[in-house]
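User: Could you go from structure to sequence for me? I need the amino acid at each position, not a summary. Structure tokens:
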């Protein structure tokens, strides 16, 4: 058991989830760990890791940051500059969870400085940066960074809106407590769910060996992490309800699903009522998210005014890249000249920047839950009319859970996400229950829409997908497990948009993918549009037409025993 604060425990839990396989705990008293840097565009001559040790007062003070360099992977100058840079980033984020920010900053620094083995070991003089007395702040446009994407969907909403029921329906595991009272969920529930994407095998006339299988329509299952946090109430950013602690639980989410009780039978605090305007939940939750970030920035506003570029550093604390922040500033109409004028900004300018950042960092899908209730239809129309630009979908999480329970008992034939339910039991209760679900939700909306909501949420950020193979003619997968035929198109790797072939190679080289070994030789693709094969350059970006990829290296991987499920 670690002897650390609640904030430290929360962050340790989060980074263990984010960096699973790349993090090594060194001690618990004080908390100390080593995190490997993966998905690097430039390739040092060996592994680069960052060692972080929490002080008793962290995050109110910076942690101890070390960059082990016994193998001289970095030159003396590179090592010194990287360490100085990370300490500056840490200083800029005092008071906030910063491990993710530090690791992301380290990757960006190495990628931007293009570390080469030729530099290592050379005696170097520190480069002196010439600075002119230019009052205008100059923001350099950062490079976008691709790589593997461990996608996380965060579930938000007021208590008793049905978040835990949605979580259970989506994960098909009855893990979350459910009930009609506030804060049923206290700690975040984290579970694996699956959404569907078109599978390349659809055009081949045969079903491939997708590692997670296909749905009833032949679409491929892809895993996604689902995180359900405690219900939020108006004033959470001021500490009401469970307050900022649960807002901070959302930091590792890539998109948000806002679960709304569209029946109008619970008020803004999640307490029972009648005739509540469910559309008002959209505004107050957006206000909470806006205030959460805005207030955090204002806490350090005097420091930011002295150095306007620190505003960018503040936004990195929300687990995002500088490329996203750069786009947010552009979308808010902030150029170098306007950023230089930051000390004279009024509240509306910063609010505009925060709003633009929220739209990029936390895109949101409205799940209109309890859509099978008598009052739902009118409330759905009212909400869509009030917020036409925000994507939404009517859902019945309870109906999905009921159908799955009936299927487990053998009372019905049912595939998750399907609009077809066949009753095979002669039990009158089962027949009546199924008929009610069909009439109130399936006939009206096509299905319970729980799994469709996952697909819609992920596509707010539109990942890229790669299907690695060892033969482009047969689409045979890469041998990985001893005694098990690899099959066809077994693997699907979820990638960040803009990922290049070189970045995919690095992903496949390292844990947890571990499908390659040795140095890069060449890459080829089989175009999914015309079926033609062609060579790919390392800098080419992967897209739908170039998603089936064969990468050749100087060595074959060592086959391993397949892990138990």
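Assistant: Here is the amino acid at each position, in order:
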């Amino acid at each position: 058991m670690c002897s650390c604060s609640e904030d430290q425990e929360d962050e340790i839990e989060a980074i263990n989830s984010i960096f699973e396989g790349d993090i090594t705990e060194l001690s618990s008293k004080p908390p100390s760990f080593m995190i490997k840097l993966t998905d690097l565009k430039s390739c040092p001559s060996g592994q680069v890791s960052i060692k972080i040790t929490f002080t008793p007062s962290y995050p109110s003070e910076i942690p101890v940051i070390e960059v082990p360099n016994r193998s001289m992977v970095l030159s003396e100058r590179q090592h010194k500059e990287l360490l100085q840079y990370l300490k500056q980033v840490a200083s800029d984020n005092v008071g906030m969870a910063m491990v993710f920010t530090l690791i992301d900053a380290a990757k960006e620094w190495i990628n931007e400085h293009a570390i080469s083995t030729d530099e290592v070991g050379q005696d170097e003089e520190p480069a002196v940066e010439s600075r002119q007395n230019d009052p205008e702040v100059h923001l350099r446009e950062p490079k976008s960074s691709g790589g593997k994407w461990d996608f996380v969907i965060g579930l938000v909403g007021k208590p008793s809106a049905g978040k835990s029921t949605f979580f259970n329906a989506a994960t098909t595991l009855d893990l979350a407590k459910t009930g009609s009272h506030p804060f049923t969920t206290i700690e975040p529930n984290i579970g694996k769910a699956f959404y569907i994407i078109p599978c390349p095998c659809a055009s081949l006339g045969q079903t491939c060996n997708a590692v997670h299988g296909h749905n009833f329509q032949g679409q491929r299952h892809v895993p996604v992490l689902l995180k359900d946090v405690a219900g939020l109430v108006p004033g959470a950013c001021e500490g009401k309800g469970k307050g900022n602690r649960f807002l901070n639980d959302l930091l590792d989410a890539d998109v948000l699903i806002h679960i709304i009780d569209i029946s109008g039978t619970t008020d803004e605090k999640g307490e029972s009522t009648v005739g509540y305007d469910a559309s008002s939940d959209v505004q107050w939750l957006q206000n909470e998210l806006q205030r959460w970030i805005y207030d955090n920035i204002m806490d350090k506003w005097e420091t930011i005014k002295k150095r306007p570029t620190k505003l960018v550093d503040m936004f990195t604390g929300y687990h995002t890249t500088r490329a996203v922040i750069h786009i947010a500033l552009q979308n808010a109409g902030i150029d170098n000249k306007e950023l230089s004028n930051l000390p004279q900004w009024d509240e509306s300018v910063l609010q505009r920047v925060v709003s633009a950042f929220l739209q990029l960092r936390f895109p949101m899908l409205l799940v209109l839950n309890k859509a099978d209730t008598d009052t739902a239809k009118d409330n759905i129309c009212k909400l869509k009319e009030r917020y036409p630009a925000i994507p939404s979908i009517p859902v019945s999480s309870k109906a999905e859970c009921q159908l799955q329970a009936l299927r487990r008992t053998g009372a019905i034939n049912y595939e998750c996400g399907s609009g077809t339910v066949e009753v095979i039991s002669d039990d009158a209760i089962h027949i009546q229950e199924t008929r009610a679900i069909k009439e109130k939700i399936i006939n009206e909306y096509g299905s319970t829409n729980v799994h469709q909501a996952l697909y819609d949420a992920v596509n707010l950020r539109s990942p890229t997908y790669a299907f690695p193979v060892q033969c482009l003619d047969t689409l045979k997968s890469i041998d990985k497990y001893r005694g098990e035929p690899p099959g066809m198109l077994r693997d699907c790797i979820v990638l960040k948009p803009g990922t290049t072939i070189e970045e995919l190679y690095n992903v496949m080289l390292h844990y947890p993918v571990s499908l390659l070994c040795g140095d890069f030789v060449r890459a080829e693709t089989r175009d999914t549009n015309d079926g033609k094969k062609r060579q790919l350059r390392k800098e080419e970006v992967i897209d739908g037409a170039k998603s089936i990829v064969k990468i050749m290296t100087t060595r074959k991987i060592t086959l391993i025993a397949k892990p138990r499920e």
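One structural detail worth keeping in mind: Residues 172 and 446 are 20 Å apart (CA to CA).
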